[in-house]
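Example record

Each entry pairs one chain with its bound ligand, iron/sulfur cluster.
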Amino acid sequence: MHIAIDEAKCMGHGRCYGVAPTLLHDDEEGFVAERGQCWKVPDELLGEAQDAADACPEGAIELLEQAPA
Ligand code: SF4
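Structure tokens for the complex follow.
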């Protein structure tokens, strides 16, 4: 499973890294530091990834079976 964070949609609410502190981190402005990135989630962090996607009020976090082409 891959996680993708849409940079344009992220408004810096900070809910994602609050519920997924191992997977995601905040930057100095309160946005998720990994915005604009897409990467493969380690199996042990799939729960955090799902929680982060569920927590984002902007729908900025997508979980994808495959990496985008
Ligand atoms: S919860 Fe959503 S809007 Fe807030 S920092 Fe995370 S990705 Fe951005």
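The chain has a mean pLDDT of 96.
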